Amino acid sequence: MRKYILKRILLSIVILFFVTLIIYTLMRCLPTSYIEGIARQKSMQPGSKSYEEWMAQLTAMYNMDKGIIPGFIAWWGSIFRGDFGDSWYYTVPVIEKFNEVIWLSFIMGAISMVLELIIAIPLGILAATKQYSKTDYTITVIALAGISLPTFFFASLMKLVFSVKLGWFDLFGLVGRNHEQLTEWGKFLDKANHLVLPIVVLVVISIGGLMRYTRTNMLEVLNSDYIRTARAKGLSERKVIYHHAFRNTLIPLVTIVGGSLPGLFSGALLTETLFSIPGIGYTSYHAMTGGDIPFSMFYLTFLAVLTLAGNLIADILYAVVDPRVRIA
Amino acid sequence: MSKRDKKEEIKNVTGEEYSLSDDRRVKILSPGALVAKRFFRNSIALVGLVVLIFMFLFSFLGGLISPYRQDQRFFRTDYIYKEYAGVVENEEFRYAAEGSDFSTALQAQMLLAMQRGKDAFAYRDVAYEIAEEGPELYSISKDGKVIGIAYKDIVSPSVEGTDIPFRLKFDALKAFANGETSFTSGSDDYSIDEGGVVYKGETEVAFISRYVVNSVMADVFLTRDFKEATAAAIATGDPDFVYTDENGETHEYLIEFNPEKNTWSVRQETASYVYDTYSSPSKEHWLGTDRNGMDMLTRLMYGGRVSLVIGFIVEIIATLIGIILGGIAGYFGKWVDNLIMRIVDIFYCIPTMPILLILGAAMDAMNLDPKIRMLYLMLILGFLGWPGLARLIRGQILSLREQEFMTATESSGLSVPRRIFKHLVPNVIPQLIVSCTMGLGSTIIMEATLSFLGLGVRFPFASWGNIINDVNDTHVLTTYLFIWIPAGVLLLATVLAFNLVGDGLRDAFDPKMKR
Questions:
Q1: Four-point Cα dihedral B107, B111, B117, B120, nearest 10
Q2: Contact B208, B151 (CB under 8 A)
Q3: Neighbours of B306 (CB within 10 A)
């Protein structure tokens, strides 16, 4: 097992290396970036140097004067020293900005994940136990509708209903207009209030997948021999489903949930942007569209690491949870 | 349905039943027909199919049927009230004199005396008498002869450039101030109507009014006729009036009183020819018009075309790459498999959405032609979409290649590409179809999301995503529901339909799940 994990980690690092190489090449090949914007701006000022001179000075300043491969190696070198550079767009060290925004994203992700689990798993099981019934069809259609809902459309609908028509929540942002005048508790409530809609959107959008996954796996388990045996023994249906079947359904569920744990840190790029919630997704959106190479590089690498970690955790959990699986 | 089937099966053309051992009782169905039969039994999937057919007709035929082009802009005449003239009520005394004895200094003395309520005063040793001839109309006389008047109502001549003699002015003002309808001045008879127009017999000679009408715009000259009409409207307290000028143009005017300055502003209704933006649904435009004055329904049709075409092309690109790489990896195994699967891993780790955002922003900066941009978008989405499919195909082929029929193909000496693409891949087609159908849905969402963020399909091309993009304007979000709700519903319905059909196909292809 240890050998397997070690092998997987090493492999992940190799994969990560190539992923970052691709991303770095891509970022460097972009026709425009923050630097050019700044250079253009600076050269516009009266009595300033020409655009070319500014460009040369700035590229040297931002370490962009190296070729792609040397630049890439230098980038990796600084990562080993724990230095991701300074964000151009936010003009602070990348890590500092990251620390500032990541926890909001994490809290949002964690709350929506818990809600998702609480809602999706029971419904999935219900659908499976009543296969081909009206309940099953309803749940299946709801799940598919959740998967099919475009985030931006759903978010707009929610805004229209709850922000505009009912006026319960603000349209944008994390804090209200009079946030600074509130007490500590009031500030907390204010923030919580602003997070309601984004979390609802996140839950509804992502609930379908888990619901269907639960249903499929539960169906598989219900069709297996040991369930037939349990029924033949004369156990109550309740016991069969919640004791024997559910525990076995948990195996793939734990695997997939475990695998998605790192994803809690990835932030919700779209939802955060739509609601202007200053989490990692929103922050990165502006950095990326603003051509901020250090921050974008960091965010993309971070996401790749999270994906790799998720896969690794899922594979390991699969072996840990199910005693029948043993990895050589 | 199954009941009817049975009846048809059992009875032959003449209506008599087949014997139990008759072969004709047995209906033979190919595997494909079995799949179709199972699929058509699934009502939810059928709903999805119907929706999809509708969407295709809507998008591909709709554009042909619609009387408008996708980038045809519509216009409307907007009526706006423009500031046209200002009106002030005259509060100051004005003076008129017979002869030249009524100097400015004397006028000031007279005003002083009037304010003190005196009816006589002396100035430079000359005695003057003041008489109130009517409300706010005073006359001053020296030695019993009227030498001048102070008045607030303004008398203007009917014919531009002529002068009204002092005597006539005085008499007219006196009559007007005292509410008389006729008066005599000199040897002529005059009449005044309540609007203040003075007639000599039938001809208009002058116009009396308390109001001063000034043009607000530098290049507009107000005719006296218009001034009269305005003053009359104000005097009667009308909030609006209609006036036809000498060129025969009729305009409506609004009068607004500004109590702070004690002035009126007259605003003229002018027609301007503008883009018919955000007009509500009507007979001509069933879903109204959008921000650019284009017909919404037509935009939706063309948008559907773009969304569907992009979805299909992306899926075809992704599937081709996926089949080739997945097939090779699965068939050859060993290091080839290892290599290809690591490439898949790498692509799997590349965060799609952020990369698309970055590339979208880059394409923005390059100012690409919207058409080329659309092409790039398809290529990029296709190149980022294949790893999942490659993994799926590789997994299937890995288990299939150990089966007997593959040994048979090997022993009959078929070439390797033929074995992979003619014998292995067709066996994966069911899974492929299911995953492509579902994938189409998510590709369409992805494209719509990018277009929504303004980084995908760009104007002048319509896409359901960039139609909804208008909600970024909160005013549109709250007021013009007909702009974004239909596009969103179509998008949702299409993606949902793809997922339902994919789900139905999965069940149909995989009889094990269907008991």
A1: -10
A2: no
A3: 23
Task: Render B99-116 in DSSP notation, one character per residue.
Answer: TT---HHHHHHHHHHHHH
Q: How far, in Å, CA of B408 to CA of B184, rounded?
A: 129
Q: Are A88 and A293 in contact (CB under 8 A)?
A: yes
Q: What average pLDDT does the segment A115-142 reach?
A: 88
ipTM: 0.86
pLDDT (0 to 100) of residue A200: 92
What chain A residue is nearest to B47 in terms of C-alpha separation? A141
Record the pTM. Answer: 0.76
Host H or E run for residue B200: strand B197-200
pLDDT digits (tens, 9 = 90+) for B15-25: 666 777 777 77
The answer to whether the Cβ–Cβ distance between A23 and B350 falls below 8 Å is yes
Verify whether the Cβ–Cβ distance A18 to B346 is below 8 Å: yes
Contact B299, B483 (CB under 8 A): no
Burial state string for B401-418 with b = 16 or more CB within 10 A and e = fewer than 16: beeeebeebeeeeeeeee
Summarize pLDDT for B84-102 with one digit per residue, the tens. Answer: 787 887 777 888 877 766 7
Check residues B239 and A143 and name the one with the higher pLDDT. Answer: A143
- Inter-chain Cβ pairs, chain A and chain B, closer than 8 A: 122
For chain A, say whether B186 makes contact (Cβ under 8 Å): no
B118 has a chain A CB within 8 A of its CB: no
Contact B80, B92 (CB under 8 A): no
* Spatial separation of the C-alpha atoms in residues B30 and B47, rounded to whole Å: 25
What span, in angstroms and rounded, lies between the C-alpha atoms of B260 and B257? 9
Angle at the Cα of A299 from the Cα atoms of A294 and A303, rounded to 5 degrees? 150
Mean pLDDT value across residues B368-396: 88
